[in-house]
Every structure is written in C-alpha cells, then in structure tokens.
Amino acid sequence: MSDYSFFKMFGSVKIVQEVTNSTTTAGNDPAIKSNSNTAATNSPNALASIPTTTIAPLNFKSQKKRYQHGKKNSYYASKHLRKLKKFKLQQQQQFSIIKIYSSGQLKSLFEESLTHMLGGTRRFVQTFTGIMLSVFTVRQGIGYLFSKSTGWAVPSLFFSDSLHECSQGLAPFLFALLVIQSLNIDDKYILMYGNSNKLTVRKVTLQFAMCLVNYAPKNILWWSLTGLLTGFIATIIVQTRLAQNKHWDDESLNEKNGDSPLDMTQGRFRPLPLWKTLHDAVRKGLVVVATVLPFLLLCNGYYTRERFVDSTALNQLSYDRYLFTFVIMTAPRRGDPPFLTRTLDSYLKNWPDQAPEAGSLYDRFQTIVYTHFTTHLEFDRAKALYQPTERGQRYLKWIREEGDTLDQRSHVSKALGFAAENYQSTYIALVEDDFPVCGAKEWRQIENVIYAANLESPGHCGVFVGTGGSGLFLKPKIAKLVSALLLKYPSLPPDIIIQQCILGNLQECKQCSQTLVTSKTLLMYHIGYNTSTSLDRSYKKNEFQCGWRHPFNGDPNVITL
C-alpha cells in the first residue's frame, strides 16, 4: 500500500501541523521562530487562510519583594493571572505552519513532529539512536526469554517465532516513536483537500496508520512488541528529562475560583511535582500501547493461522512404493507396560479405517513392529489386538527375531538395514515404542514439516520431530549409512550417532551438513520415563512432553520449520 493510495480518496492533500501544548521550550527559541516565519512566508504552498503571526510568550519581569499584604498583592497576582489566561487563549487559536507535505513525504511526519516536541534536531537524533540500540538489546532478551529459557521449563510460554522472527525495515522503531508521541497526544494535523474541505486528525492516529501499513506485508509481532516496550520506557525517560529542564505548568493554577497562584517567583509558577508529571506520561503511554496491541495480535493471528498440507500435494513428493516406512523398535520392559499398544494406537487413529485408493497417500504408509526377543508379552498383546482389525492388516507388519539379549545398538542397526534393503521407501522413520504422537493436530504438523522440508531443503538427509532415537525420518541411503556407523562407533550411544550423522558432524556424513530439518516443538512425547531400556539413563515424568522446544530449535546449522 503506497502513501499515494492512502490519500487517493482525498485528491490533493495538504497537511498542516497544529501546535497545542508544547512540552519543550522550542517555542521560545528565536531560531525556530525565524524558521517558522520564513516557511510561512516564502513557501509557495503555504496556506494563506491560516494565520501565521507569532505571538511571543509573556515575559514576567521580576517583581520587587513586597512586604505589604492584602489588596495590593492580590491585585498584582490577579493581573498576572489575567495576562496568562489571555496568552493561553491566543495560543489555542494559533496555528504554526511547520511544513506542507506531499503524499510521498509522509514518513517524515515522525521526525518533524517529534523534533518540534523534543526541542530540536539534535535531541531527536539522540533519542532515535538510543531507541535503535535499545530495541536491538531488548529484542535479544525477549527472544531468549520466550524461547530457550522457557522452552523446557515453562512450555506454555514458548514461542518459536520469538527466536526466529526477522525484522522488516523501520517498523519496530516507528512503533517506539509512536509511544513517545503520546507525550503530546492531543497534537493534531489539519488535512486540507479539495477546494475548502479539511479534516482534523490526531498525530498519533495518522502515525499509527503509517505503522500498520509498514506492518501489513509480513508478520513482525515480536519486533513490534519490542518497539512498543522500548518506546514506553523511552517515554518515561524523555518526560523526566523535559521536567528537569524547568518546564513550568500553568495548569497548576486554580482557574475556577480565581484564586491567586500559590507561588510566583520571577514571573514563573510552581511546576508540577515530578511524580505527577511521570504519572501523566505513563497514563498516556499506556493508552497508546493498549490501543495498538490488539491490532498487532489480530494481525499475528491472521499470519500464523494453521495451514495443513493437502494429502494430494504430500503424495506427489515422490513416486516410491512407500512414502513412509515406520520402524518401531520394541523390547521387554519392567512390568510389561502397554507402551507399544499406546504408541501404535496414536498412529493408527490418524490413518483412515477404510481401504485407501490405490496409489493414494495412505496407501503408501506401512509400519514395521520390530523386536529381537523371543519372549515379549507386550509385543504378543499388541499383535493379538491389532492383527484382526482392518487397520492392523493394512498398515502393520510384525517381525520378531529370536533372542533374549538386550543390545540396542545391534538391534537398531539390523532394523534400519532391513527396512532400507527390503522396501522402496522415501523415508524410513525410526520410532521407539514409548514415544506416541501427541495427537491429530501434531500428526498433521508432521506432514507439514515433511512437505516443507522438501521445499526448503530438497537435499536434506533427514527430518527430526522427536528426541533421542525417536521421530527420525531418514532417507534410505542415510539409513543404510547409519546402520553401519552404529557398529563402527561402539563408544557413542546409538541415538547420538544417528543425530551426529544427520547433523553432518561425522566424517562419513559430511553431505548432511546444514541440511537437517526439525519441527519447532516436540510432536511426540515420552511415556517410558521409569522403564527405560538404557541402563545408564533415567528420566523425569514431565520431561520431553508435547509442546517442548525441540532440542535443536535455535541451532544455526539446523532448519526449523
């Protein structure tokens, strides 16, 4: 949306700045008055209908100390009060033409308005520079707070975009300046259009519209929130500095009953206390933040709404017989808990019950339940439960090798080699029997990540949506390579070998460097925390659950989708 289209409905538009209650002494600066008069008289676009005479502020001369009281002092105080009221009325009727903008110069409204308010170009540059440095610093802190620090400790506060969201132009800095503008929230512009038509609009309103135009092309919620927070803090600092510059407030007078000022020293009235000035600044800043924030959240909700890949599009990723071959590793556990049954059920309930059409997406799914134990009660129980069903017959294959030795390294190596050599599959997914899928939504997210991985990184070696040795979607050639590496590096745990390979950290897997694709959060959760088949590991009940930040999310060598 261009600036021209924003004002197209008004035709030829001119903007005149109205000066209300300035918070600085810029109005007393002779240089500024001279520039204003020059602009008003020499500019060919100046509006003749707007009076441009400059009224000098009252110069209250020092009064000699009077020892008399009563009517005489009351007379002098009332005289000064009448002069002040008259001057205030004249100021409210006075318009100072700062500049007449064309539609292509609207971005300078922030600079022009705040320069006048802050008291000069130098102060504006200093303020803007401080805002830029503060935004960068605060953005880093917010990114860490709502990603790595809360990703595991408080998963409900984890937002992956807070870590990965990129900025776009000056939007975060403009939002900060918007909050600072709240110090003069009543300042207005007069938009002149047509022959004699005009529209009065607050500066804050017009500047907010400009910020939304900058926000529209792309979602930058976290950068914008950083700008609002930085601007709110800067507002308090700016107001404190202005108060320290001895700006006196004439509203402290009791104008209703005509009482004399409480103190009159050298023609100046007693200023408002600092706490009251800051309270007013905080109140105005909160009004702007509370008005802007709902718009940002609505836009963010639109940009981040869930979109699931169509099954037809996912099915066209390859023409192999199988798109996914799941290899579920299972072994006897203490107490024979029904973990395998729960894990199988989490997959099967997301796949259609009726026979899929030949060549369709779900016709290209299969699951191999693999064990190396002759005696495995949970394996037998799950097989007896699912084998008679249509889903069990269509999607499940049961493979048991005789033995009674717990050797995870050898078993995983044989299972991956078996799947890679005997089935033409696009992905071989390694899953442990105690890592069910979180739900139907998370299953669709797995499909999304797989589809996006083929678009963002066509040459990737694998996709990782779980943790440990579960949720690893490997290309067949990588599955064969990993099968051999598991036996080559006996000193490393099996899951670490697989992870290091798809990260490209092993010499044999250099082709996988910077190609690994992961989900933002864990899409599978751990249920076997107290019955681990690894004797050297122990887990807590609430570890590695749904919604946790993926362990590789934030690694610059990993693509997070």
Topology:
Blueprint: H1 3-6, E1 13-18, H2 30-42, H3 71-92, H4 109-118, H5 121-145, H6 161-164, H7 171-180, E2 188-193, E3 197-202, H8 203-215, H9 221-244, E4 264-265, E5 268-269, H10 274-303, H11 311-315, E6 322-329, H12 339-348, E7 365-371, H13 377-386, H14 390-395, E8 396-400, H15 408-422, E9 425-432, H16 440-456, E10 462-464, E11 472-474, H17 476-488, H18 494-503, E12 517-518, E13 559-560
Parallel strand pairs: 6-7, 6-9, 7-8, 10-12, 12-13
Antiparallel strand pairs: 1-2, 2-3, 4-5, 9-11, 10-11
Helix pairs in contact: 4-5, 5-7, 5-9, 7-8, 7-9, 9-10, 12-13, 15-17, 17-18
Number of helices in the DSSP assignment? 18
Biggest beta-sheet profile = 8 strands, mixed
Query: Which bin fits the share of residues in helices?
Result: 40-55%
Whole-number mean pLDDT:
76
Q: Can you offer a commentary on this structure?
A:
This protein is 43% helix and 11% strand. It has 18 helices and 13 strands. β2 (188-193) and β3 (197-202) form a beta hairpin. The protein has helices at 3-6, 30-42, 71-92, 109-118, 121-145, 161-164, 171-180, 203-215, 221-244, 274-303, 311-315, 339-348, 377-386, 390-395, 408-422, 440-456, 476-488, 494-503, and strands at 13-18, 188-193, 197-202, 264-265, 268-269, 322-329, 365-371, 396-400, 425-432, 462-464, 472-474, 517-518, 559-560. By secondary structure, it is α/β, with parallel strands linked by helices. It folds into two domains: 3-58 and 75-303, no CATH class; 311-560, Spore Coat Polysaccharide Biosynthesis Protein SpsA, Chain A (Alpha-Beta Complex). Mean pLDDT is 76; it is low at 1-14, 19-73, 90-107 and 247-269. It is elongated and about 105 Å long.
